[in-house]
């Protein structure tokens, strides 16, 4: 069975490579040859790998005369056209007018594809001498198609000053749609606070790899980061510090809305997390009545876990949870609300089960779907709940079994195994930033696993998708975020997007290497893993 799977995987990827016409063609990452001498990037050479590629025909060239043609009756398509123009104008120096005038030339963005196999997020990109046409059933598909077009152009296109070009896109047709609906990245803004601009920068980087979910870890022992009108001290006092004792910070409701809006413009849904009943020192420090003994502890700026708990038997605890969830649900248009539930080591099992039951009911009452860390499966997940698996190779069989049993009963899973997808794990013993409790996670290890078979006994259709969490005990700014996220994040994005048949480390690492010059052009501070054949830059 195992052999068979490996064979069909390999065979599948050979097929894809052959179809893409890229057999034996190494990428030419950042070579020193003048750009004009380089052929356009082969059609399949993007991350995440596309589902189907049929290479052939003449390439398309973006030139001074190129227009971006959008459907006239859709404001959203026009907005995507403007987004594309904004991406391409600085480096090409071309005007690239966005027009609703019909025409067979230029870059054409079209809704109304009738191909049901594309789903809500898929697209088709056809490139030939006269035009590049992206068609989709919905705007998210067009947006993902635009990310593909971006990656098919030379990396210099990402620079913010005029570059030489030429700006060619290989000829052929690419038909693409995601394997999983939930492709997520988490940012922990609690351990260290990140500004709205830092979050937006990360959102832009996620969008390039077709991630469609941003999970924000908004509260923890070290800081409460979202303003709640009915409990103002949470943010004002509970948000006033961070790991190491810095000033912390919080998002006002309008900051939070700005993040949501920016994420939505990049087709990402925000999943806010209020971690409970553990990881709550910031809240307990802000309001004495939330503590079982009625005494507020001091603010906390260390990195231990498992010492705090809301007081499950007290009625006021549920007034608090209700108010917080109500305000957060009202602010958040997305479907999901994450209530944490991990490492409640200071809550008795009985209290934990009772608390999670009540907290889940409150989430349901405000119209949202519960997401919780997989410890939720040790309580009673409500119908429709999603559990986020964050175990690792040393997670015990009983714990895994509990997750698999819940999946069999209908709980959906998001997979973020700590020894694969935790972007805060060190790459190796020389990594300056990050933690190592789940071991070192080099680029190959983070990419080389299959979400469908990762947890034994879990039905394949229970897996909603994958997430790459980035915890910030050791991270303080965008440069440090990027050093840990890149280049592992694109690999997790590929696990979420690309068909299993394309999975192949040997060809992935070549495609990833070709992203190096793009990271550089974007100013992304990435880790030059020795496992990846980066070219000279
Ligand atoms: C654990 C813990 C977090 C830590 C993180 C560090 C989960 C779900 N709870 O993951 O509080 O920040 O590890 O890697």
Question: What does this entry look like structurally?
Answer:
The protein is an alpha/beta fold and 537 residues long. The chain has two domains: 19-30 and 42-176, Chitobiase, domain 2, CATH 3.30.379; 182-499, Glycosidases (TIM Barrel), CATH 3.20.20. Helices cover 33% and strands 16% of the residues. The protein contains 16 helices and 19 strands. The chain has helices spanning 2-20, 75-92, 139-152, 196-208, 233-236, 253-265, 281-286, 315-331, 349-365, 397-408, 418-421, 443-447, 478-485, 488-497, 505-513, 516-521, and strands at residues 52-55, 60-62, 68-70, 98-99, 106-111, 123-127, 131-136, 167-169, 172-176, 182-188, 213-217, 219-220, 223-224, 269-276, 336-340, 369-373, 386-389, 412-415, 463-470. The strands form four sheets. Strands 10-11-14-15-16-17-18-19 form an eight-stranded parallel β-barrel, surrounded by seven helices. It has a seven-stranded mixed sheet with strand order 1-9-6-7-5-3-4. The protein has a two-stranded antiparallel ribbon with strand order 2-8. Helix 2 (75-92) packs parallel to helix 3 (139-152). The chain is globular and about 75 Å long. It starts with a helix and ends in a 16-residue tail after the last helix. 53% of the residues are buried. Residues 305, 342-343, 373, 390, 422, 424, 435, 471, 473 line the site of ligand NGO. Ligand NGO is lined by residues 305, 342-343, 373, 390, 422, 424, 435, 471, 473.
